[in-house]
Each structure stands twice: as C-alpha cells, then as structure tokens.
Amino acid sequence: MAVAGVQDVYHLAADMGGIGYITGSHADITLNNTKINVHMIDAAWRSGAERFLFSSSACIYPQYLQRDADVTPLKEDDAFPADPEEGYGLEKLFMEKICQYVTEDHGFETRVVRFHNVYGSLGTYDGGKEKAPAAICRKVALSPDGGEIEIWGDGLQTRSFMHVDDCVEGIYRIMESGYHKPLNLGTDELISVDGLVDLVSDIAGKHLSKRHDLSRPQGVRGRNSDNGRLREVLGWEPRILLAEGLVPTYRWIASELGVPSEPAQAISAVAAE
Predict the structure, then answer these.
(1) I want to staple 194 with a disulfide (CB 3.0 to 4.6 A). Which of 100, 108, 155, 208 is the partner?
(2) Contacts of 173 (CB under 8 A, 6+ apart)
(3) Which intervals hold domain NAD-dependent epimerase/dehydratase (predicted)?
C-alpha cells in the first residue's frame, strides 16, 4: 500500500473551493470526498500507520447557529443536532464519525481538525476554487486606484481567517497532542467581508468603491471559532493577526498577476531615491 511504513498520515486532500464552488457541486463534491476519505483512513489503518489526521471543516456546524453576522463563536460540542452545509459539510461530518468509530472499535489513533478559513501565499487565487481572502486580493490587485470591485452579498457577512503558517503549526501540535476528538483550528478575529476588502485595499494603498451583488452565493451569515478547547488541549492557538498575514499574501498574489504590490506613492519615493 502507498502508506506502508508511514507513521503519521496527514489527510489534507479534498475536492473543495470557495462558497460559489461548494454550493454548486453537491453531488460531485460529496462523492469525490467520501471516496477519498474512506480509502485514505482504510489504507492508513490496514497498512499499520500509527496516527491519522483528518482535515474537517467549520462547514460541519449547524446553519441554524450561523444566521447572524454578530455570531456566537462555535464550540466543538455545537455540531449536534446536525444541520451542516449541504454536500461539503455533510461529508466532512460523516468522516468525523468514521474517525471516531475506527478509534473506538480498532484503537487506531485519529485526529479531527475543523479548519476555519485558511489563507496565505502559494494558494489558489482564481478559477472559482479560491477562498474570500485570495479572491479579494486578486480583485484589489487588478483594480485601479479609485476603481470599483464586486463583492458577493451585502458585505456584512462575517468570518474569521487563519494564516497558513498557523495552520501548519496547529495540525502538527494536534497530531502530537494525543487528543482524538474534533478540535477547532482557526482564529476568533471576526471581520466582515467589507472589512476584509478595506483591509486589503489599505495594504495595496488603494481607494476602491464596492459594488455588492446580492444574487451571488454568500454562505452562512456569520461564522467564528471558539478556541477555548484548543487552548485547553494545546496551550496554544493561532497568533497571526489578519492585518499581518494579508501583507505577504497580497504581495504574492499581486506578483503572480504581474501587478506592483506596493502603493504608488511608495514606489515613487523609492524611484526618487
């Protein structure tokens, strides 16, 4: 088997994308991810791996708890009674239970991590599978100063966003923790989509107007991570503030697009020197 002789299996693969993608491909996403997940844990267990980490999602949380922008942070125990995101959230919740059963019935060490919106350099930023921070960085980079960008929804919907560096450290810590129940992994720094646009615009040194398209998918009204259990288990939580992590993210995406990533006035100052 492909994982024979491997001690730790970090199962991060998935058919996934932004809200426009996961709300438009329920059948394909559910089928693809269920097959990926089941085959991965079965191969890891039967080939003698010691530990298996499954990358779940905050999309497993009940939609009835996420109807307000000023959302109460979601705790791990809030998952039931269940009402997950159709398709993507449902298959993630199903796989969480498989991890639980394999641990209980066969003693196979599993870890379940509920990601809350990961962003950073080297990620997808176009094509339909990008998440909000990358999509907004792309739109801001391609917009002229004084221009206009399109925002999905009214811009008041809220989320929290975790930098990829914190994500990598978090999954390693969780794998080493010995804790086999689901854990949130995200920040509790709540921000609106409009606020995210303003933050990226400030980084780019641009003044942009927003055009809100209410016909486009926008997901739940609000979602935030309760990190109480994460701190209890690990004595740690993600630490990179959004305003800090977006700087290298925006610069990398702008570079990929061939757009100057420094504000025009900063570039002029450098040129003058």
Answers:
(1) 155
(2) 234, 236
(3) 5-182
Q: Which residue ranges make up each domain of the chain?
A: 8-256
Can you identify the CATH homologous superfamily of domain 8-256? Answer: NAD(P)-binding Rossmann-like Domain (3.40.50.720)
Helix (H) or strand (E) holding 211: strand 209-213
**Confidence label for 259 from pLDDT (cuts 50, 70 and 90):** very high
| Residue entry with tokens 């921000």 | 191
Write the DSSP symbol of residue 111: E
- Would you name the residues annotated as active-site residues? 88
Residue-wise pLDDT tens digits, 7-46: 999 999 999 998 889 988 899 999 999 999 999 999 999 9
DSSP of 141-203 = HHSPTT-EEEEES-S--EE--EEHHHHHHHHHHHHHH---SEEEES----EEHHHHHHHHHHH
Lowest mean pLDDT across 74-78, 159-163, 186-190, 258-262: 258-262
Residue pair 112/171 in contact (Cβ under 8 Å)? The answer is no
Q: Which residue has the tokens 């449902």?
A: 90
CA 143 to chain centre: 25
**pLDDT > 90 fraction of the chain, expressed in percent and rounded:** 90
Cβ distance 70 to 29 under 8 Å?
Answer: no
Helix (H) or strand (E) holding 52: strand 51-57
Give the dihedral sign, CA 55/86/99/46. Answer: negative
